[in-house]
Amino acid sequence: MANERATSKFTGRFDFKQFAKKMFDPIETEVLGPLYVGMLGECHTWMHSHQKSRVGANGFPHSFVSVPELLLNMILAYQLPQQRFVPNDIKDTKKDEPGSSDRSRQEGNKSDGEEGGSRKKRRNSQAAKRGKNVTINPRVTLSDELSVKLLEEMLKIPLAAESKLWKTAKYVLCPSNSPHQMEVFGEIIAKNTEDGLISFNALNYFMHDQVLTQHFKNPATILHALYLGPLNAQTVEVFAANRSAEFRRSCREVLRVAVRASKDPMTFQHSAPINIDKQHPDRVKYRDFIETVKQLVKDLNGEYQGSSGIHVGWACAAIKKFGQKRYVDKTWRDENYYDLLWTVLAQRPHLKKFVVDVLEKNYGDYEAAKFWRRMQPYQMHPTVIFNQNVITDDPLQPTEEFLNFSPQVQQILMVSTEKEIRDLHKLLEYKVSREEVVYVGVDAEWSAYVSPSKATILQMAFYDLVYILDLESHQISPESYHLFLSYLFDTKEVVKIGFQFGEDLHQLRAGFRNCATLYRPNNVLCVGKLIMDLVEEVSKLNHAEEFKRDHLPFLIDDPTVMAIGKEDDTKSVPNESISNDSVGDLGEPKPVKEESVKQQLMNKGLSYLCEKFLGKPLDKTEQCSVWDRRPLRNLQLRYAAMDAYCMLMLYDKCSEVFSKMGFEVKEFLDKQSPIRISLPLLSEEKL
């Protein structure tokens, strides 16, 4: 029976929760916690005394695991909070009245029509009327002591290298991410590593964790991990980030030891860490070690060897997802979908039949299907897209619905030649020489339809001009790119105003890996944080509502903004959460800490902030367009330029409102922490 109920909607997947419930539900709650620890401790002995090493449910290959892994899956599944649907407790007295069902049906249809929006939003709205999901907490509340004991046992369990179980395990063992508890966990993980009592999957996960990795004090941990499994470059970079120069030098020396060990079997044997037992279940063989080290060094040097084409699964999903936006939601235009289909087919020509079938069967667009059936994908270039049916309106032309440029903006200029980037560099130097501070709105765009992704354009907005720098132009030398980007991000007199610009910098670093100033830029400020400070100061005023009516009229009655002033009083609010022991009698909801109100406002995005502070939202139609196509379409130029220019508009609005309250905007800008990222490990010194 448990086997039958354990199936999921994904073929070949297995749900361990049903097994866990069948096994643990009859056991008393007080006994269950210590039983977890006892079973995990005994399962290793059981493995040594039985020939059968893997168990599972017939018909579900993914369920076949070792006994320790089976217990780990069951404990984690049982300890995760569960969702339960609770219908609304409303006494419907009208349903007995004649004609009431017809009226309710009409009202329901009317409300559905009024709501509009996507089908997902309508479904959610209808579900909310029927009831709500409540969170059922696990039966066993893990104390700090019990969590520590479980961690020690779980660290020894070997898992497949690609398993994601430790992400779940970390949440189950410490859902609050308490700094004190993380400190204790870090010490235990480091000690188990020194004793050789840790699996590769666990070691790899914690080396990649930005908090817990700091507890590994020995650079030789890299060699330890290489002898246990396929360590990747990203994990090594995280492990070595924000460390002392001496520690990073030692990491490079450890990598040199690994390279020498990969040269011959004898050196491989002699270089093995003495704390790794020869019978360790994860210990790698010499041939696997060679491949791991070879790939690791290439990746650390930035020599990407994989395919740059779009992943086939993501390509198929994108074709369907954005087809929905084009034909059903009507939020995408023909030119958007055309660009997507072109770049996908140019990279994956064998998907031509899939594209035609989707157009015909899903959306009934036989003309478009006929057009793409005639196309020859093998002759198409992924970024040189030919489409005569594009909108050619002036990018600066005002619109009624969305935010527009200021009248003082003269042009949007594309920078794609050596002369143009030099002229832009000279202009920036000239402005710095003439002005005390130069404010520049910055943003970057990259295509989601290549792998790995990297920034393809960088937008720079001045008050009268907007420049779009082509970061993939063959007419600009790498030296010119490096010189310009170094000057832009290193010059303190140039204040770069962005919105959550960290990800943009990450994409820029992917394209210009050895540009040191992208890792430690000066004066890169987030306009979102400035807005948070502004809203907080406004909420402290005695006449806050009157002040907002005069200076921030679009913020009046906004529930998220109104909550910021009361955040200190509502750090813990009731959430729909019930304990497992009170399933029959729901009882009172338990208080659960909510997400920061300020963070909620930030998560609403740049368009929302523009609407609330400038009166109109941004047009986000081009957000997921093909940004590496050349030339960019006019609507892409408008979107890219506005994304950078609105930073200046928001900054000016904040500066104006701060001055009305008697503040200088500079004092709030100075509060923002500088962005500091460690350089790539091998950029400082080659192996």
TrEMBL record:
Basic and acidic residues composition bias: residue spans: 89-118
3'-5' exonuclease domain residues: 600-653
SUPFAM superfamilies named among the record's database cross-references: Ribonuclease H-like (SSF53098)
Gene3D superfamilies assigned to the protein according to its UniProt record, in alphabetical order: Ribonuclease H-like superfamily/Ribonuclease H
Gene Ontology MF: a single term: nucleic acid binding
Region (Disordered): 87-136, 568-591
Skewed-composition ranges (Polar residues): 572-582
Biological processes, Gene Ontology terms: nucleobase-containing compound metabolic process
Bias (Basic residues): 119-132
A Pfam family the protein falls into: DNA_pol_A_exo1
PANTHER family to which the protein is assigned, alphabetical: 3'-5' EXONUCLEASE DOMAIN-CONTAINING PROTEIN
Name of the molecule in the record: 3'-5' exonuclease domain-containing protein
Source organism of this protein record: Caenorhabditis briggsae
